[in-house]
Amino acid sequence: MNNRLPRAPLTRLTPHAAHLRLAGRQLGLPLTLSLFLALLIVLSTIPGCHQQEVQKQLQKEVALKKAIANLNGVYTRHGKAGPWNYSASVELDKILSQNPPEYTARVLIECLDDTSESASILAGKPVSLGIVCYQGLSQLVYHEPIDDRGDAVASWPGLITPEASQEELRIAKAAWKRAQEVKLLIFQ
Questions:
Q1: Furthest-apart CA pair in the chain: how many Å?
Q2: Fewest CB atoms less than 10 Å from the CB: which of 7, 40, 62, 101?
Q3: Rounded to an integer, what distance in angstroms lies between the CA atom of residue 72 and that of residue 131?
Q4: 27/133: higher pLDDT
């Protein structure tokens, strides 16, 4: 007695999918894996809105970063211990307000460790794009770091200055990502 289930005929496979199914059988792959690979081929050949949407998002991110990088701001400090001042903060606010704050914060966090030069300067030298992204993040988002008991902490690696090194930028990015993941960001 044959205990095998009857096979349902496969119809409407694209030539690529049918070829892949046949190749899968020739390689000794199980039918389900062969069909899965065939399905992947079929889905990848469908010109979808998803690809277009991803491309639009990437273009939007590039445009946002480019606008931030092109700001001609100057970082100055009042005294050796005074707060830093960024001369293009109003222009930066205008750029940041063109998109939803959650989206903008995500883009800013992702570019925190970007060491490419921006048009903004400190002591006559260009600062990295990551520094200007941090400036934007600090204007857009508030985060008060806390310890395991819920008490505010005095220092946090996400807080940097315009003089931050590449390593400090990398560490700051990781700290901001953690804060974002656990939803500790307060939009201003």
A1: 93
A2: 7
A3: 13
A4: 133
Tokens read off for 133: 């992204």
Angle (deg, nearest 10), helices 129-140 and 49-69: 100
CA distances from 172 to 23, 74, 114 (A): 49, 22, 12
- What would the two tokens of residue 99 be? 């998109």
Measuring CA to CA, which residue among 14, 27, 16, 109 is closest to residue 61? 109
C-alpha dist (Å) from residue 107 to 113, 133, 144, 172: 12, 9, 20, 14
pTM: 0.70
pLDDT tens digits, residue range 54-93? 788 888 999 999 999 999 999 999 888 888 999 999 999 9
Q: Which H or E run includes 110? A: helix 101-110
Q: Pick the closest to residue 119 from 85, 84, 73, 156 (CA basis).
A: 73
Helices 31-45, 15-26: axis angle to 10 degrees equals 150
Mean pLDDT throughout 2-26? 53
Q: Concatenated DSSP letters for 121-145? A: EETTEEEEHHHHHHHHHHHHEE---
Using the structure block, give the residue that is written with the tokens 């750029």.
95
Q: Which of 11-20, 66-75, 113-122 has the lowest mean pLDDT?
A: 11-20
From residue 155, give the alpha-carbon distance in Å to each of 57, 152, 175. Answer: 34, 9, 12
Look up residue 10 and give its DSSP letter: P
